[in-house]
Structure formats: structure tokens, C-alpha cells
Design a protein that fits this description.
Belongs to the LysR transcriptional regulatory family. This is LysR family transcriptional regulator. InterPro entries: LysR-type_TF_proteobact-type, LysR_HTH_N, LysR_subst-bd, WH-like_DNA-bd_sf, WH_DNA-bd_sf. The protein has about 300 residues and is an alpha/beta fold. The chain contains nine helices and 15 strands. The chain has a five-stranded mixed β-sheet. The protein has a five-stranded mixed β-sheet with strand order 11-8-12-7-13. A hairpin with a 5-residue loop joins strand 9 and strand 10. The longest helix is centred in the N-terminal third of the chain and has 29 residues. The mean pLDDT is about 85.
Length: about 300
């Protein structure tokens, strides 16, 4: 039998002064209450209560046991409360690249807090990839299809990109009609990407790596965007990020008949059987959030 349950029954009998009343309070049969009491007496090796037809009373051993049993129940409740708090409140540490943080993660956090207002967030916005275990990160949103050992991932879809430049830059440079001519252009390249080439796919679905001239590098795609807006070259950026600039004509798509290889977007987290409930719920919320915000994938 469950010892904690037996202790709860014993304390209730002591408070009610009756097995029958204790049974009613606990929504049990009187026979079950009696069995729990007998189990506890056998467990402790002492008679805890004197029984008669009208009332029960504590023995000396029962009085001593009652004090300890009440303490056990108080500690058990504190432990239960602690566990519950860890599941539904606390701090979730999240990391994502600058673009994903600014354009999507913050909106997702606001939406999640409407559902679970007791959860706090610590957002680490970086272009570099952090070791989640070393930096105590709960969830990462990454542009990668590689998952290290000890981690789990959930697919968020593909992040589509395009080549863009300002009309002023293109007007001042030799005509660009084929990917072969990229080697004669000023290319603005992410520091974590290949500096020597870009992979483009033609209308027939044929992919090829084309050499480029990497004129400028940065680990921040907002810096690359600003350089493109300053007429400094051609860069590869998420379509969702440049949609507004394309609509207003500040940027134009370069080689629009060619497609770039999309990036895989994923949620990454440490594999564990004891992931707090609030983290599990946040992961599920992110999956739903990104599924509804199709602009991420355009």
C-alpha cells in the first residue's frame, strides 16, 4: 500500500476522531480506512490508536507518530508545490539569430505569455551557435539541419532566401544577366556562409555553385541589409526580411529566374526525460506559431 496515503488517512482519523468520519472526508469506505491504519501500524511496529464502537483515540505512540506524520505531509506538499512551480512558472532561456529574434521570436513570446503569464524569458540573440548545455539554454531556434548528439529538434520548415541589391548599385555596375557574372560584382556575404560561391538553381531544377567576389563580410544580416541599401553590393537575405524593401523599390531581386537553396529552420533543445512542462508547452506553441505565420517560409 501507499505509505504517504496511509499517513494521510492516519492524520485524518486523528483530526476527525472517527474512522467513519475520516472515511466520509476522504471519500473512502470505512473498511479501506481501517486497512490503511492497520498497514501503518504494521509499518511502524506500534499500535497508534485505541478503537471502540463510538470513537478512536491516540495511543502514546500514536501521539508521537502524529507529529512526525504531519511534518511528512507538509514536506510532501512543499515538494509537490515546488515541482508544480517548475512546470508552470520560471525562466525559459531562448537563443536565436538576430533576424529570427526580432521578426518572429518576440511576437511568439508575447503570445505565449498571454497563455502562461507566470513564465519569464531570457533571450540570447546571437548569430553564433551556442552550446545549449554549457550556457543553460532551454530552446534554440536555428537555421540548420544538423543536430548534435544529445539534442532533439523539431522541424519548422524552410527559410527561403533571394539575392537583392539596390537599383542604384545595379545601374552603376556592368549588366548582370547570368550567375557567371557574379564574380565581377561586389557581394556582401554572411561570415558563417561560404565566401567563394553561391549555389543557384535554374528553371530546369539544375543546381550549380557559382564563384563570387566577396567584397564585404558580416555575422549580422541586418548589417548586410544596410550595406545593400547603401548601394554597396549584392547580398543573400531571407525573402521575408526584404519584402518591404522590394515592395517600395529600395531593393530589387537579382537573377529572379534562379532559386537559392533554402535553409532548414528548426527548434533545438537538450534531450531529456525531465524537460519542464513550461518548456514543452513553449516548444509546442512555437510549432503552432510558425505554422500559422507562413511569411517565415516565403
Amino acid at each position: 500500500m501507499d505509505t504517504i496515503k496511509a499517513i494521510q488517512v492516519f492524520v485524518e482519523i486523528a483530526q476527525q476522531g472517527s474512522l467513519t468520519k475520516a472515511a466520509e472526508k476522504l471519500n473512502m469506505s470505512r473498511a479501506m480506512v481501517s486497512r490503511y491504519l492497520e498497514y501503518l501500524e504494521n509499518r511502524f511496529g506500534a499500535r497508534l490508536m485505541q478503537r471502540n464502537t463510538r470513537r478512536v483515540s491516540l495511543t502514546q505512540a500514536g501521539e508521537e507518530a502524529l507529529v512526525h506524520c504531519q511534518t511528512i505531509l507538509e514536506q510532501e506538499q512543499m515538494l509537490t508545490n515546488l515541482s508544480a512551480e517548475k512546470h508552470t512558472s520560471g525562466v525559459i532561456r531562448v537563443t536565436a539569430a538576430h533576424f529570427l529574434s526580432r521578426e518572429y521570436l518576440l511576437d511568439a513570446i508575447v503570445g505565449f505569455n498571454n497563455l502562461m503569464p507566470d513564465v519569464q524569458f531570457d533571450v540570447v540573440s546571437l548569430e553564433s551557435t551556442l552550446n545549449l548545455m554549457e550556457h543553460n539554454i532551454d530552446v534554440a531556434i536555428r537555421i540548420s539541419n544538423k543536430v548534435p548528439d544529445g539534442y532533439e529538434s523539431r522541424d519548422l520548415g524552410e527559410l527561403k532566401t533571394c539575392l537583392v541589391a539596390s537599383p542604384e548599385y545595379l545601374a552603376a555596375r556592368p549588366e548582370l544577366t547570368t550567375p557567371h557574372q557574379l564574380k565581377n560584382q561586389q557581394c556582401l556575404v554572411h561570415s558563417h556562409a561560404a565566401w567563394q560561391s553561391w549555389v543557384l538553381t535554374n528553371e530546369k531544377g539544375q543546381s550549380r555553385s557559382f564563384p563570387i567576389r566577396s567584397y564585404f563580410h558580416s555575422n549580422d544580416i541586418y548589417v548586410l541589409l544596410e550595406m545593400a541599401l547603401r548601394h554597396q553590393g549584392i547580398t543573400m537575405l531571407p525573402k521575408a526580411m526584404v519584402a518591404s524593401a522590394l515592395d517600395t523599390g529600395r531593393l530589387v531581386e537579382v537573377l529572379p529566374t534562379y532559386q537559392l537553396e533554402p535553409f532548414q529552420l528548426a527548434i533545438v533543445y537538450v534531450s531529456s526525460n525531465h524537460t519542464p512542462q513550461m518548456v514543452q508547452k513553449f516548444i509546442e506553441f512555437l510549432l503552432d506559431f510558425f505554422g500559422k505565420h507562413q511569411r517565415v517560409l516565403d
